[in-house]
Design a protein that fits this description.
- The protein has 2 domains: about 140 residues, 3-Layer(aba) Sandwich (Rossmann fold), CATH 3.40.50.2000; about 170 residues, Rossmann fold.
- It is globular, with a radius of gyration of 23 Å.
- Strands 3-2-1-4-5-6 form a 6-stranded parallel beta sheet, sandwiched between helices. The chain has a 6-stranded parallel beta sheet with strand order 9-8-7-10-11-12, sandwiched between helices.
- With about 350 residues, the protein is α/β, with parallel strands linked by helices.
- The relative contact order is 0.11.
- It has 13 helices and 12 strands.
Length: about 350
Amino acid sequence: MSLSKVSKLEILDLCSGLTLLYNKKMENIKKILVINFGGIGDEILFLPALISLKKEFPEAEITLALEPRSKGIKDLTDVIDELFLIDIKSKNKYSEFLKLIFLARKGGFNLVISSGGNKFISILLFLTGIKKRYGYDTGKLSELLLTKAIKLNKNQYACSMYHDLITPITEIKTILPQINIKPCDKKSDTILIHPGVSSLSVQKGMIKTIPAQTWAKIIDLLLEHGKKVILAGGSDDKECIETIRNTIKNVSNPNFMDFYGKTKNLIDLAQLISSAEKFLCSDSAPLHIAVALQTKTYVIFGPTDYKRLIPDFDNIIPVTADDNCKLKPCLWEKRQTTCENLFCLEIKPEKIVELILSS
């Protein structure tokens, strides 16, 4: 029978049959391996994709391969059943990749998904021996070795960029990260401040936040306006926090609460963010927790692109300098370290406070 003589009904029957066959194959998905290397912020941004996978395959076990520094992500969600800790930053990174391949081949996985735009990723997924393999399109090799190579679109919110990886697998779309923290009652007039200084980023010359003296000035101004200010931070923030403490004019003000060191884990931090009326932070992991909790958040952005790191929601407000730098945003796109001038982080504390008080 010639193609011209095939009826529309026959074509529809064929498409329907193929769809049923595909769905039947996908019903056999019992174990899923997801690979996503990066900091805890990257893992939170990947959560919508994991949540959609869990909704599509509610009986499947999801294993996440990630760096040891980000293992706290499992405390925030119940969609991850197991973790593979792969220390790709160690001196023995190649043996770590071999460990991942061994664990993947031993694990009986039906489906593997990996982020990352490196051409090595498609080879890695192929070596796992897992039949269904999904990753970003990095050229002919990825098209050959992957079940589906997905176009990498960095010009969108990172959650959506990661979620693109599973579009050939499910039509379910989760927009924002969701974490297992029950919303707390908001404490009136409270503003939580988290500098979000990563010591690893500083060591590598990637400065993404305002100086400690500016944070201190912001706290002073908020206290002058009668606001209750809570200061929090992680171990990486120690030097910055100490400078803030020593710079604040009236550290004994009853409206100033120093919570540094009192949040022992991500759950403690999430509960603190949830209880604050407003949250001021840097481009760091606490930002993405705040997005998941839908707390009104003001985010300091300098050399990075806020359009890719926050959703286009009214309650997430980027705070940027009026520097008119033609290279901004430059970090990751044009350079791997920040420039010496850092004009993009010269944001007046008065501007930040006015924005917080007026919106």
